[in-house]
Amino acid sequence: MGIYRDLGRSPGVFRVLFAQLTARFPFGMLSIILLLHIQLAYGDYTSAGIILASQSVGQAIAGPLTSRMMGRWGMRPVLTITSLLCASLLVTIALVHLPLAVVAGIAFLVGISTPPVTPAVRTIYPKLVPGRQLSALFSLDASAQEIIWVFGPVVAVFVSSQFGTSAGLLVAAAFMVGGGAWFIMSPAVAQVRIPRARRSLGAVLRRPTVVISTIVGFLFVASFAAIEAGIVAAFADQGGGHGGHGSIESGIVLAVFAGGSLIGGLLVGHRQLRPWSMLLRALVVLAGTALCLVRLDMWWLALVLFLGGLGTAPVFAALSNIVSSTVKFSETAEAYGWVGTGQLVGVAAGSAVAGIAIDAAGPRGAILVSVGFLLVTVISAAVTIRWLPDLRGKDATPLPDTEPLQLPD
Fold first, then answer.
1. Count of CB atoms within 10 A of residue 403's CB?
2. Which of 233, 360, 363, 370 has the fewest beta carbons under 10 Å from its own?
């Protein structure tokens, strides 16, 4: 664990880490809150699926665009404008009952205005620590982001069940503004300048590793959104509060899932990446999720998801290392924009498909959706091994934008 202690010797590392986690926290809450809010307002999960799909389309468009804007106008202006706009739109959905089509349009704008915190911070990381510590920082980031993807839904379920889904959306908006301000005011955000991209939008997708990371990230995160919706639905009838959504049981299960991921990330995520590492880590998650189908007992679900969680953060760490080690620094923001878009769309898509599956087949339908996404994740990781980097004896520092010329003797 000394490798993580060494990170603290680099000024500003932990401030940036925790500030960006706070800024990104709402996106672990939003899919579940929107699912519950729209289901209550319009009476079915399919309507909620439409709203989440609209949001995901907006995110798909926004990710690489806002990332490139940071290279042109700077990180602070882009992050400030998008954070304020996105939070305002969430407040509108929370407080005003509108026709479904109008809400779908607002949800699309929520996606378009998603603050590009992830590409910003992962572009900053290589400038904060020496290259030999970069894999450890990515691993710590992947472990800590379980606060977002697992504890976010826990907070969402708790607030929505106790105070209503409108309150849940307002809490998400508050996190977006407050966390965004903390991150934006970090000195590193002002000090690190993202170079203006030299190639056209989308050119970075010619790198197989960026495409692989985007697709795998989409599938992987979609599986979590689906399993979270299934867990909430499994215990919904036991919960009180507004609409009977959620219960302490679902919170315990999701928290244990997060704990497994946190432990797995700290123990495994910093290890030197091999081409087959991502496949093995994804297989662990698939096994744990598939075992959820055996029975929907709280303690069984907690046990098997803890085991599956051991592979979760290590997969996210692998994705960050794969991109960082194979892309030029001037292209990292856009590359992480595509990867971040894949993950954010995965959250919305997984929740949307899971909502439809819950209407059709109950909680087990959502779990089957999660298993399906993970199965495709494993297949994708297996068939793309030939393009993945072998980082044994190397670090994950981005490729330089200029290369030395070999002069003749």
1. 8
2. 360
Can you give the residue range of the structural domain that contains 236?
A: 13-195+203-387
In the chain, how many domains are there? Answer: 1
The pair of structure tokens assigned to 91 is 């407040």
**CATH number of the structural domain spanning residue 84:** 1.20.1250.20
8 A C-beta contact, residue 280 and residue 331: no
| Residue listed under structure tokens 């315990």 | 252
pLDDT number for residue 344: 76
Spatial CB neighbours of 10, under 8 Å, sequence gap ≥ 6: 128, 129, 130, 133
Show the tokens assigned to 9. Answer: 């010797």
Q: Indicate the SS3 state at residue 164.
A: coil
Cβ(150)–Cβ(257) below 8 Å: yes
Distance CA 349, CA 361 (A): 18
Measured CA to CA, the distance from residue 237 to residue 243 in angstroms comes to 9
CB contact at 8 A, 142 and 239: no
β partners of residue 328: 399
**Residue 85 resides in a domain:** yes
DSSP letter at 242 equals G
Q: What are phi and psi of 328, to 5 degrees?
A: -65, 150
User: 337 to each of 95, 117, 124, 170, 265, how far by Cα in Å?
Assistant: 31, 9, 13, 26, 23
Q: pLDDT tens digits, residue range 156-198? A: 878 888 899 999 999 999 999 999 999 999 888 887 777 676 7
- Phi–psi pair at 182, nearest 5 degrees: -60, -45
Q: Is residue 250 part of a domain?
A: yes
Residue type, 50: I
Q: Extract the runs of DSSP E, i.e. beta strands, from 29-142.
A: none
